[in-house]
Amino acid sequence: MKVLNALRDEGVNLSAFVAFPKGRRAQLDFVPVDQAAFKTAAKKAKVRLIGPKTTFLVKGDERTGAVADTVTKLSGAGINITALHVITAGAGRYGAILWVKPRDVNKAAKVLL
Length: 113
Fold this sequence. Notes:
By secondary structure, this protein is α+β, with helices and mostly antiparallel strands. The protein folds into 2 domains: 2-44, no CATH class; 56-112, ACT domain (Alpha-Beta Plaits, 2-Layer Sandwich), CATH 3.30.70.260. It is 33% helix and 36% strand. The strands form 2 sheets. The chain has a 3-stranded antiparallel β-sheet. The protein has a two-stranded antiparallel sheet with strand order 1-2. The N and C termini lie far apart (34 Å). 13% of the residues are buried. The model has no long low-confidence stretch (mean pLDDT 92).
C-alpha cells in the first residue's frame, strides 16, 4: 500500500489504523500521533484524505467485560456506536477504536473521559 509505505518512510507513528472494504475500494482510517506529520506524508504520497473524523481510543487492562463497560456507558447516555474495533495488545492489555455520529462526539467525550 502506497500510503503505508509513505507513512513508514516519513517516520509517521500511528495510534490506530483500520481498513475495510467500501464498495469496490477500501476505506482506510488512520489515527496518527502527529496529525501535521501525517498530512505532510500523505500529501507527499499524493494520497487524498477525507476528514478529519473524530474517533475515540480506549485502552486498558484486558479482563472480562472491559469493552462492555465502555459500551454500557455510551448506551446509558443514549449514544449509538457507529463502529467499534477491539484488539488484544498483549501483556494483559487491550485497545479499541470507536466512532460515534458527529452530533454525539462532545457528549461521548464527556461520558468516556
